[in-house]
Write a structure and sequence with these properties.
Elements (H helix, E strand, L loop, with lengths): L3 H15 L10 H4 L11 E3 L1 H14 L2 H4 L3 E3 L16 E7 L4 E7 L3 E7 L3 E5 L2 E5 L4 E4 L5 E5 L5 E7 L1 H7 L4 E3 L13 H6 L18 E2 L1 H14 L8 E4 L14 E7 L8 E3 L3 E14 L2 E5 L4 E4 L5 E15 L1 H6 L5 E3 L1
Antiparallel strand pairs: 1-18, 2-3, 3-10, 4-9, 4-11, 5-8, 5-10, 6-7, 6-9, 8-12, 13-14, 14-19, 15-20, 16-17, 16-18, 16-19
The protein binds 2,5-dihydroxybenzoic acid.
Amino acid sequence: MTSSSQLSERESYYSELGNHSLAPLWASLARLVPPSPQPSAQAFAWKYAEIRQHLLTAGKLITAEEAERRVLVLENPSLAGQSRITDTLYAGLQLILPGEVAPAHRHVQSALRFAIEGEGAYTAVNGERVSMSPGDFIITPAWTWHDHGSESSGPVVWLDGLDVPFIDFLKAGFREQYEHASQIAHRSEGEARLRFGSGMLGPSDKPTNSSPLFKYPYDQTKAALALIAKTEEIDAHRGFEIRYINPTTGGDALPTISAGMRLLPDGFKTAPYRSTDGSVIVLVEGSLRATVAGKEITLSPKDVVAIPAWASVTLEASGETVLFNFSDAPVHQKLGLWREERS
Ligand code: GTQ
């Protein structure tokens, strides 16, 4: 037993330590070295119909050029003001209107784009324009020049996923503006696919940190999932699943973010699953009832969900359901930290 006089003696000792930039470890050990992951983020869903309205309002208030990137950040309610959807990932929805250009820049943060609504917009990566259609997965590797533009007749929206919180944690951020708003296209569309999308490398091609294949079209993803669903056994915890890879290494398309697509047949209910990576789901087709860390969530196409680290997930599909997901798994795996639990 500690007496109250001992307690007050300790309190005054601790505050005296603070005056000398010292702190007692025993007051914070349990938090610093937890028995299991303790994410700050909560399970949370954003309804696309709501976000869309706010995005269109932004479209009236500010141009893409002025904003540089006209994006509404999906901020986890438990991390307000921190531009994070999970503890370690950034996500936002970007709007581009007909004729607009989001000017070219480059930064050390790695980015993914997941096309949500509209046809006729493009992103240019390292001098190659790639068009975006809903369901396409596109990457912008670290330090590659990129600008976005639209030749559409309506609004185009996509989801941005970036490793911003990691770079911020490391205080390793660099960024540069390009000398023009748009890059001069010096490659034709499809060059990266021709060069790196058919199982071929040249003698001087080396393994790269990020995939040189910038775009993974939705029609190919769907065709692959349909074939897998016909020929393979379903994973009780995950459904049918593909992962977007870097063809020079076989690893994830980006060094810090893993991304993939899953297919759940009509009525399929997954068994509980959790893993140490925090993740984000975007529903593409069908309808889902999800339970994430005990919270019930209903999802329609284009809705977005944040899944904190180590949160238990079950998914129930109505109608054939397709979902995009991305996470910080590669960081866990490179550090030897990654764990999963199937129950
Ligand atoms: O499109 O380059 O959502 O630099 C955040 C930072 C998008 C982009 C974001 C960015 C971009």
